[in-house]
Amino acid sequence: MLIHNVLRRAVARVDGPQLSIAKLNASRLSIAELDASRLSIVGSDASRVPMARFNGSGLSGRGAFHQQSMKRWLSTTNGRDPPKPPPKTGPEFPMLIIPTVEKPPAHSPLADTISDPPKPKEIVAHLERHVIGQHHAKRVLAVALYNHYVKLRAGMLQPNSESIRHEKSNVMLVGPSGTGKTLLAKTLAELLKVPFAMCDATTLTEAGYVGEDVESLLQRLLDSAGGNIARAQCGIVFLDEVDKLAKQAAPEGTRDVGGEGVQQALLKMLEGTLAPISARNRASIGGGSKDSTNFDTSKLLFILSGAFSGLDNVVRSRMEERSLGFGTGSKAKEHKALTEVTPTDLMHYGMIPEFIGRVPVVAVLEALDESALVRTLTEPRHALLKQYESLLAVQGVKLVFTPDALHAVAREALRAGTGARGLRSIMERVLLPVMYEAPGAGYAKVTFDERAVVNGTSPRIDMAAKSKSSRG
């Protein structure tokens, strides 16, 4: 019918009163009888208009196909595989072109946003170069991260498929301060090259109260993605100090707007929802058109972390109750309680059940011992000792810490209970006199031993040769 209508309109435009179509065979689009004394088809694409036979006095007119040319075409091709049409001449009449519509391949605009994620073993190998210890936590994170982005890419590459719908697997990192929780999340974001937003949960409040609401997390992702909302929706949100959101006993007549209220506000975002972007934030995504006012959080990976101080007591209490009467209470106390944490323990701690249910993956980080702290000082790519060595090397000074001095620094961090976070403050205190005197003093080498770290005695200083000769 489409071709029939196209022919009818084209013929009518050429010379309507003198043209008529007697018979039309729709199955082959063959014109059985055409009474046309002045029909001319100029510029028509013969390859797109197959004609089986013509019955008439011929085709004539300015720029038309001659009857002999048409007969030759029919005799050589039988109307099935027509050659290219002859060149156009003369004024053109409406062309009889039947458009070919091809179905475009299925493609999601997010398919070009994220590359194939590294394999879990590759992720762990990368983490080993930056974070010391925590082997179990690294494996848990690597698998969760890999599976999340594999699911995401599979959904993007087959947007119209009726495949099984996958749910998100957000991650909870539990461990003492200074065990590498924040560093693990940052290193993962750098490896994947995806937008990364980090926020302290203690600054969040319910919407309408003084403080930041949960929408600020999305704004930080947009800023990290340069305003590209498609990239931002595939990013990572790291929420630290989440243990501070535990329910608190609020005074009568007041609301816990910074604890349970924030947990409630985060529920939809953790599960996946279309969160509206407020008017003040729409400028970050190019103006605030209707298509860009909602942020889809179903593709976000949330990594939550907290020290959960006292959670080990909750776990130990549960384990001792279970072991009453079997004489294993002492063994339960010796067990690493946090490795046995369950969702029930987290709920007893003060996290609401709905919140825990949306964070199914829990990884426990162990406190670093003295040996691990020494390795943290020296082995990672951006190790603290390497940072100070390069800083003094710019001034021509070689910095050396003996093994005893490194262990002394680690022991002080253990006594302070600050883990790896306390290493920098100790190093700053120990190196302060040298960093004050070294510029312009002609130092060539400074060596710290255990006494210099523990008692604060002066390190061994070797002067440069030029300085020695000038003094002599």
Written account of the structure:
With 472 residues, this protein is an alpha/beta fold. The protein has 18 helices and 12 strands. The chain has helices at 2-15, 67-77, 120-128, 135-157, 181-192, 215-224, 229-232, 260-271, 311-322, 329-334, 343-349, 353-357, 370-378, 384-393, 403-416, 421-437, 450-454, 465-471; strands at residues 20-25, 30-35, 171-174, 196-200, 236-240, 274-276, 294-296, 301-306, 361-364, 398-401, 443-448, 460-463. The protein has a 5-stranded parallel sheet with strand order 4-5-8-3-9. A 3-stranded mixed sheet has the order 10-11-12. β1 and β2 form a beta hairpin. α13 (370-378) packs across α15 (403-416). The chain is globular, with a radius of gyration of 38 Å. It starts with a helix and ends with a helix. Residues 11-66, 93-108, 287-292 and 325-335 have low confidence and may be disordered.
Features:
472 residues; alpha/beta; Rossmann fold; Helicase, Ruva Protein, domain 3; five-stranded parallel sheet; three-stranded mixed sheet; 18 helices; 12 strands
**Unreliable sequence segments:** 11-66, 93-108, 287-292, 325-335
> Helix- and strand-based class?
alpha/beta
Q: What do we call the CATH topology of the domain at 120-246 and 258-278 and 292-364?
A: Rossmann fold
Question: Which band does the percent of strand residues land in?
Answer: 5-15%
CATH architecture of the domain at 120-246 and 258-278 and 292-364: 3-Layer(aba) Sandwich
CATH homologous superfamily descriptor of the domain at 120-246 and 258-278 and 292-364: P-loop containing nucleotide triphosphate hydrolases
Question: What's the CATH class label of the domain at 120-246 and 258-278 and 292-364?
Answer: Alpha Beta
Shape: globular
Average residue pLDDT: 75
The radius of gyration over CA amounts to 38 Å
